[in-house]
From TrEMBL, chain A:
<feature type="domain" description="ABC transmembrane type-1">
    <location>
        <begin position="84"/>
        <end position="297"/>
    </location>
</feature>
<comment type="similarity">
    <text>Belongs to the binding-protein-dependent transport system permease family.</text>
</comment>
<dbReference type="GO" id="GO:0055085">
    <property type="term" value="P:transmembrane transport"/>
</dbReference>
<dbReference type="InterPro" id="IPR000515">
    <property type="entry name" value="MetI-like"/>
</dbReference>
<keyword id="KW-0472">Membrane</keyword>
<feature type="transmembrane region" description="Helical">
    <location>
        <begin position="279"/>
        <end position="305"/>
    </location>
</feature>
<keyword id="KW-1133">Transmembrane helix</keyword>
<keyword id="KW-1003">Cell membrane</keyword>
<feature type="transmembrane region" description="Helical">
    <location>
        <begin position="23"/>
        <end position="52"/>
    </location>
</feature>
Automatic annotation (TrEMBL), chain B:
<feature type="transmembrane region" description="Helical">
    <location>
        <begin position="94"/>
        <end position="120"/>
    </location>
</feature>
<dbReference type="GO" id="GO:0055085">
    <property type="term" value="P:transmembrane transport"/>
</dbReference>
<protein>
    <submittedName>
        <fullName>Sugar ABC transporter permease</fullName>
    </submittedName>
</protein>
<feature type="transmembrane region" description="Helical">
    <location>
        <begin position="132"/>
        <end position="154"/>
    </location>
</feature>
<feature type="transmembrane region" description="Helical">
    <location>
        <begin position="166"/>
        <end position="186"/>
    </location>
</feature>
<comment type="similarity">
    <text>Belongs to the binding-protein-dependent transport system permease family.</text>
</comment>
<dbReference type="GO" id="GO:0005886">
    <property type="term" value="C:plasma membrane"/>
</dbReference>
<keyword id="KW-0472">Membrane</keyword>
<keyword id="KW-0813">Transport</keyword>
Amino acid sequence: MSLSGPNKLARSAWLSDRARESIAAYVFLLPWLIGFVFITLGPILASLALSFTNFSGSLERMQWVGLDNYIRMFTSDRAYWGSVRVTLLYVFVSVPIMLAFALAVAVVLNRGLRFLGIYRTIFYLPSLLGTSVAIAVLWRYVFGQYGLINQLLGLFGIEGFSYIGDPRSALQTIMVLNVWTFGAPMVIFLAGLRQIPAQIYEAATLDGANAWQRFWSITLPSLSPLVLFNGVLSMIGGFQAFTQVYVISDGSGGPAGSTMFYTLLLYQRAFTQLQLGYASAMAWVLLLFIGVVTAVLFLSAKYWVHYGEGR
Amino acid sequence: MTNPAASRSQRSVAAPRRDTWSHIPEGMRPILAHTALISACFVMIYPLLWLTASAFREPAAIFTSPGLWPGEHFTLENFVTGWQGLGFVGFSTFFANSLIVAGLSVVGNVFACALAGYAFARLNFPFRRTLFALMMGTIMLPLHALLIPQYILFSSLGWLDTFLPLVVPKFLATEAFFVFLFVQFFRTIPGELTDAARIDGCGHFQIFWRIFVPLALPAMATTAAFSFIWAWNDFLHPLIYLNSPQNYTVTVGLSLFLDATSESNYGAMFAMSLVSLLPVVGFFLSFQKLLVAGIATTGMK
């Protein structure tokens, strides 16, 4: 530090404090800036450009095809709309159920019970494991013909079927897996519940509000910013579900396309059929769709999200 | 203003109200809540417990026993055969690869995200607001929108079938969640500390290194734990970038193993699935306070 004193004086002679701070900031930001330009922004723009080509791995044979990829996607790719349907069902059914579980368990845990830490640990653990290959493997055996579920049903004399192998139920098993990971939003709700002053509840109770009324008129409005936050994050995560689907369906999206998620179709088109231009178009449609849904959620916020009385 | 005793007595004389819980005696409510919670926990972790029990069972007994105690069918054989993997490449290789990838991801994320987080949280510079908004925007980007050009980029650099595509982006702070975590953390450090250091003649780098880094240990541990778990669980990127089984991480190795042998050896499959989860569970249990605090502030999974 004895060296830096005079050194600093020498430097400040030709650079203002503000200029030096800006230079330092960009040095700190350098790794992120490089990553942002080359690994995030560049690829996003490149995939937009690729989506108008028939790129399949060799630049020499690449041709500009205009909107062909988008036209093919919307009109003639048979698997496409099926994958859209499966993905939308998955996201818009399993995410709300997951959030409802997260909220319900958080409210129960917030009643000042003992062993809160232990419960929280157990409920949270699945959300760290939920996207691993091992859990997807486990799911195949839990919901298979001779799996855990059917063994348990067998104890009551009920004969089940292979839930993974049946097109009517395969998607539902993957939804159950998503709901199983409700621990992460639960922890966020729990942190939010701690912020609600107890006096509000006491005042409401004095006014004769029952538990149900207190939940609807105090708890839910106070947590609404977190509902929005968890909703957006879980939705974006849901649209990107891949590992579970790939492992549970052996990469096929079967049975009968019932688990052909958008991401899995994109992966097949890109990396098994090398239709990289077409898959880029699929990626951009996904990006735009997520952007629109997120924007709608944020715009709708003014009708249902309450940001305290202060503003 | 509220005296708890007073308010409680007031509450009990409050006008008749239809409270959902009111017909249940006061002392019974925690017992009911605990019963419900314990049952819910049990249902939640039953699959994990069954996985553990099955890993220690003779394969022939796995699909006839929904219970949790291996009993007479107890065996360690599944771990022995499973660990050998596909013969020419075993799980020791997959584990070593995953450890290298996850370890380097931890180092990269902590290093690069702490630097970027510090700049966004504590320094003034041109385009700060714009860059911060862009950084936050990247949190919401679906990774599939980046996948194909990244693949083309890394393959043209000759990085296919190496760990570089999995690790180098971490050293460039592409997981913006962690940058945000550091921003949130650094914002809470009082300005007096930096003012004092500046008067003592510290430059920006010394202030970062001597004041912020030592104080940021909780944020670093959170970043480290999540980075490790995410990198360990990552399946899509190793699937795309790694071609030879010798380079496979545990997730791709497990999926290969599933295709190759599971129909003949369920036991080994269960045993290796269990083993592959242990590092994640271990990291979680040792860092759980920090992880829970981390998700509470930034909303990570």
